[in-house]
Write a sequence for this structure.
């Protein structure tokens, strides 16, 4: 029919879109696939304003992970302003030529038993913002069940739909969904990717930063499969020949630091020893300066004490006034304290010299 219907598989991990057209020149596969993510950068000062990137325009999501936003909570669209950005991206990339509206019927997938509020907001967005003529909602796993069902198969079955953020169990009885007995498990590809990332980071701690979540999602989608018999698969992988024929080896990005890790550790150790020597020298210099000042003050106090012992009382009292002291007892107490401080400082200087000599001897090669 004209105009051709537009099919949008609105998933929480990936959005797929294409035309439903009987023309053999139009491929049956989705023409457009991109991650259901958007990132809005703040923009440089004095330059252009905020820039919004959607889907495949993001490139690698790792540098922008803290800016990434998704319209989905689990697998239910709740952020309709972000959903509008995804729809704009779809219509622009598919070349919808009608001005001011989308003059095509739309088939849109949604979650099983989608909340009425979410469907209401989605309908409002499509009809009022894009002026779509018709909308049909459906569950992607049921579409797949009906499409793949062969002639001799029964009309009843059990559909296990494993999505990005949750898994649905859908019983189909006599060709119709038994919605009351549907079950939802909050486990999906997202949790599997995080679990795989933790396993590999524990196994290869030297490559901790290189094992990113986006790389784990790529491994999960391109290099893994679901075992029909788990115990039998384990027995297969214990066979060396089967392992060599089926193992997948991945090369992480080359890093010069990893090759020179031993050299780097030796350089770090040398730098630490140099810093320690500088710190010891600085402390020794400070102790010597303090010892010199204390020794000069002690000599001054001892000279005043000698004036008292010689009986020169006038000069003794003048010296006490200059020192801000009141009596000979106070003078004696200061002399005792300074003598003790000078002795302690001398002991510390001797100990530091011995420790520096020991460090220098230990650092020499055999």
């Amino acid at each position: 029919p004209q105009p051709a219907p537009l099919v949008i598989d609105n998933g929480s991990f990936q959005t797929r879109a294409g035309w439903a057209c009987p023309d053999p020149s139009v491929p049956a596969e989705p023409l457009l696939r991109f991650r259901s993510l958007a990132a809005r950068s703040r923009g440089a000062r004095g330059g252009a304003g905020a820039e919004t990137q959607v889907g495949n325009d993001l490139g690698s999501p790792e540098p922008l992970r803290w800016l990434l936003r998704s319209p989905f909570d689990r697998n239910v669209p709740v952020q309709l302003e972000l959903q509008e950005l995804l729809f704009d991206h779809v219509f622009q990339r598919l070349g919808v030529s009608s001005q001011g509206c989308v003059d095509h019927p739309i088939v849109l997938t949604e979650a099983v038993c989608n909340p009425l509020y979410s469907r209401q907001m989605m309908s409002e967005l499509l009809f009022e913002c894009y002026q779509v003529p018709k909308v049909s909602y459906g569950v992607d796993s049921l579409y797949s069940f009906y499409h793949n069902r062969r002639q001799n198969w029964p009309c009843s079955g059990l559909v296990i739909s494993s999505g990005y953020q949750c898994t649905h169990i859908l019983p189909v009885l006599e060709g119709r969904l038994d919605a009351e007995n549907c079950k939802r498990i909050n486990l999906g590809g997202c949790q599997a990717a995080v679990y795989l990332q933790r396993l590999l980071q524990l196994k290869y701690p030297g490559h901790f930063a290189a094992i990113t979540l986006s790389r784990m999602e790529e491994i999960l989608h391109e290099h893994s499969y679901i075992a029909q018999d788990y115990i039998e698969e384990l027995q297969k992988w214990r066979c060396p020949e089967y392992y060599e024929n089926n193992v997948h080896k991945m090369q992480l990005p080359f890093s010069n630091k990893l090759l020179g890790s031993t050299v780097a550790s030796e350089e770090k150790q040398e730098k630490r020893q140099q810093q320690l020597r500088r710190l010891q020298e600085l402390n020794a210099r400070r102790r010597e300066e303090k010892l010199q000042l204390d020794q000069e003050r002690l000599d001054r106090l001892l000279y005043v004490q000698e004036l008292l012992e010689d009986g020169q009382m006038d000069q003794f009292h003048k010296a006490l006034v200059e020192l801000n002291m009141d009596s000979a007892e106070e003078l004696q107490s200061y002399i005792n304290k300074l003598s003790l401080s000078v002795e302690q400082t001398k002991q510390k200087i001797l100990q530091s010299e011995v420790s520096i000599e020991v460090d220098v001897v230990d650092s020499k090669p055999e």
